[in-house]
């Protein structure tokens, strides 16, 4: 009975953590710490599902809608980084050092 109570306590704790993280996501969807806690809670909750397909189904049902905004900002971040690298390379090429004195 102790093992089942321990599992039940873990389930309740992780479900509570998931709900808190879901509410925090509504306020600030770009909080990386919150997203990490939320993913950890979902992984822990998936352990209570019966088969691996049920675990995957649970994670797919909860996670994809939240990930879209984060992916959009990742893409824009890479575009900005590429622009900065291109500008710095162009600037380095335009400022050629003077030749050494003879």
UniProtKB/TrEMBL annotation:
Keyword Protease among UniProt keywords: no
Biological-process GO terms, alphabetical: protein insertion into mitochondrial outer membrane; protein transport
Subcellular location: Mitochondrion outer membrane
Any Pfam family hit: TOM20_plant
Bilayer topology annotation: Single-pass membrane protein
Superkingdom of the organism of origin: Eukaryota
Record-linked InterPro entries: TOM20_imprt_rcpt (IPR010547), TPR-like_helical_dom_sf (IPR011990)
Transmembrane segments: 75-92
A cellular-component GO term for this protein: mitochondrial outer membrane translocase complex
Record key words, sorted: Membrane, Mitochondrion, Mitochondrion outer membrane, Protein transport, Transmembrane, Transmembrane helix, Transport
General function of this protein: Central component of the receptor complex responsible for the recognition and translocation of cytosolically synthesized mitochondrial preproteins. Together with TOM22 functions as the transit peptide receptor at the surface of the mitochondrion outer membrane and facilitates the movement of preproteins into the translocation pore.
Family to which this protein belongs: Belongs to the Tom20 family.
Protein name as catalogued: Uncharacterized protein
Source organism: Stephania cephalantha
């Amino acid at each position: 009975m102790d093992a089942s109570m321990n599992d039940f306590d873990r389930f309740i704790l992780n479900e509570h953590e998931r709900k808190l993280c879901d509410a925090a996501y509504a306020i600030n969807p770009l909080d990386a710490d919150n997203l990490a806690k939320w993913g950890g809670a979902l992984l822990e909750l998936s352990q209570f599902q019966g088969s691996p397909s049920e675990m995957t189904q649970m994670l797919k049902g909860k996670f994809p809608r939240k990930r879209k905004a984060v992916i959009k900002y990742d893409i824009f971040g890479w575009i900005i980084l590429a622009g900065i690298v291109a500008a710095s390379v162009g600037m380095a090429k335009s400022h050629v050092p003077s030749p050494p004195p003879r």
